[in-house]
Amino acid sequence: MAIITPFITSDGIVEIYVDNLFKGIVVIDRLNPPYGIALPGGFMDVGESIEQCLKREMLEEISLDVEIKGLLGIYSDPNRDPRFHTVSAVYICRAEQLPIAGDDAKTCKVVSLEKLLNEQFVFDHALIIKDYLAYRQLRSDKDFPSGEEKD
Amino acid sequence: MAIITPFITSDGIVEIYVDNLFKGIVVIDRLNPPYGIALPGGFMDVGESIEQCLKREMLEEISLDVEIKGLLGIYSDPNRDPRFHTVSAVYICRAEQLPIAGDDAKTCKVVSLEKLLNEQFVFDHALIIKDYLAYRQLRSDKDFPSGEEKD
């Protein structure tokens, strides 16, 4: 019996800090269909862990060596991707530099939390962003690294 | 370009409560290779969410309609499964009945937390169990549902 499961991807919510001040998270304008604004991320390769996949994708797509802070969740709705069924493991990450667009990104930018929901996200990335904002609200102050700006 | 990613599975740490008292978690003796003791779980189908996959597998394999409590983690080491590269989303679940072995399980049983690490687990399930036990230690008392026995 042939085993067929959905494709696995990993996406990053990359929190950018400059001089230890939180500036926002990275979004990309996709080079390939479906076109639009998205979190950076991509397909997992056989032979790498999901964390290696995430770090590789962040390096390839936004030129950042990110530190993984934690898993936000798994997004697996069969209709979340218009092409085929994908499952994404979404991690919150931190980086200390500004992103530069690479593979699969026409451009990229850092967006403050207040302006994030003004973006027109593809896939289910608006849902992921809402979950991320809710998660930040829930975290108590002591969980924030020192020097982080509250919103 | 053909996309190939690892296979996705979901495994359950199913906490069994009888008369609201915590009895332990469910392990199975596998019917198919690799033989040995494992957490119940199985491959995700295209067209279902990861949570639907987990609930379906728990029904098929240990005959329980489980309530999903939360995500423990994602296990994705390329060597975790001797057959091929699999990624497992592991969820903590709760059920109020005793399990009955179904598909892919020769037998199943409920094992108390004290005795869990005496089992000879296949895959990386001993690591998952260690993470689960550490997670239980970390949770503060208020997070335990009322009536749950502490260990």
- Based on secondary structure, the structural category of chain A is alpha+beta
Rounded mean pLDDT of chain A is: 93
Give the assembly state of these chains: homodimer
User: Which ranges of chain A are low-confidence, i.e. pLDDT below 50, for 5 or more consecutive residues?
Assistant: 146-151
Distance between the termini of chain A: 52 Å
| Beta strands of chain A, count | 7
CA radius of gyration of chain A: 15 Å
**Outline of chain A, from the CA principal axes?**
globular
Structure description:
- With 151 residues, chain A is an alpha+beta fold.
- Chain A is 21% helix and 35% strand.
- Chain A is built from 3 helices and 7 strands, in the order E-E-E-E-H-E-E-E-H-H.
- In chain A, a hairpin with a 6-residue loop joins strand 2 (21-30) and strand 3.
- The longest helix of chain A is centred in the C-terminal third of the chain and has 14 residues, at 125-138.
- The model of chain A is unreliable at 146-151 (pLDDT under 50).
- At the A-B interface, strand 1 and strand 5 of A face strand 1 and strand 5 of B.
Task: Please name the defining characteristics of this protein.
151 residues, alpha+beta, disordered C terminus, homodimer, 7-stranded mixed sheet, 7 strands
What's the arrangement of secondary structure elements?
Two copies of one chain form a homodimer.
Chain A lengths: L6 E12 L2 E10 L6 E2 L2 E3 L6 H13 L4 E9 L10 E10 L9 E7 L1 H4 L8 H14 L13
Parallel strand pairs in A: 1-6
Antiparallel strand pairs in A: 1-2, 1-4, 2-3, 2-7, 5-6
